[in-house]
Write a structure and sequence with these properties.
Elements lengths: L12 H5 L8 H18 L2 H23 L1 H18 L9 H10 L125 H7 L8 H10 L1
Helix pairs in contact: 4-5
């Protein structure tokens, strides 16, 4: 009994050959005729139909398992990222930490207390990252994006934050002593209780920063700060901040004290 999807039987070779216009094409037409017979024979073979259904079933099972195991793959990915960060702790260079930190932050993993002291993290993007009590001491963060990041009680002593975007960041009670924030964007950032002693703030954009309640600003350099809130410059100089264009003079002043 022919199967519903079976191919029709090809014509006999003698009749099929009559359609050939050029004798030299006969071998190619014969091969075509032969393959039609083979296809016809296989289309009646139930085993191949079973294999076709099995293939579709295995594909469906694979898709189900892919989604079922997705949480485990995400956990494994996060575990590997933390391994990269922790293995490189205390070392210079990047060591893959830029990619690892950005990946964890994209997946919404808290980075509370992460220790990347002395790491090379230039250009890292950690927008809105939860970095409470993180350790960035002496880290190279030039050109980084820390918009709206939570850096409460974080340690950024001697960190290089030149040209960084810290708009809207929370830096309450953070320790930025000796940090370099030259040309950084600090608009709307919160500095209540922060230690800004000997910080380089030259050419920083201070538009709408929350500065009242800054813990310490002695010898911070506020030369040519931009968009400073009313009263900030007077308050800062009254609490020990300086305005000096020369690096040498400012360095001498900070080392002499």
């Amino acid at each position: 009994m022919p199967r519903p999807n079976a191919r029709p039987r090809p014509e006999p070779w003698a009749k099929f050959r009559e359609t050939i216009r050029h004798r030299w094409l006969a071998p190619f037409y014969w091969l075509e005729w032969l393959w039609e017979w083979i296809a016809c024979a296989l289309s009646n073979w139930a085993f191949l139909e079973v294999l076709e259904y099995a293939g579709r079933l295995s594909l469906l099972v694979g898709v189900i398992f892919y989604f079922y195991e997705a949480p485990s793959r995400v956990k494994q990915k996060h575990y590997q990222a933390w391994q990269v960060i922790n293995t490189a702790q205390g070392k210079g260079g990047s060591g893959g930490r830029i990619e690892a930190l950005q990946e964890l932050n994209r997946d919404g993993v808290p980075l509370v207390g992460v220790n990347v002291a002395s790491a090379f993290l230039m250009g890292i993007r950690l927008e809105k990252a939860p970095l409470i009590r993180a350790n960035f001491d002496a880290a190279d963060l030039r050109g980084c994006d820390l918009q709206s990041a939570n850096l409460e009680s974080a340690s950024l002593q001697s960190a290089n934050l030149r040209n960084c975007d810290l708009r809207g960041a929370s830096l309450e009670n953070a320790d930025l002593a000796d940090a370099d924030l030259g040309d950084a964007s600090l608009g709307r950032a919160h500095f209540e209780g922060a230690n800004l002693s000997r910080v380089n703030l030259r050419n920083c954009d201070l538009g709408d920063i929350h500065w009242k309640g800054i813990g310490d600003i002695k010898l911070a350099n506020i030369y040519q700060v931009k968009n400073a809130p009313p009263g900030f410059v007077e308050w800062a100089t009254g609490h020990g901040a300086v305005s000096m264009a020369s690096d040498e003079e400012w360095l001498k002043l900070t080392t002499d004290r």
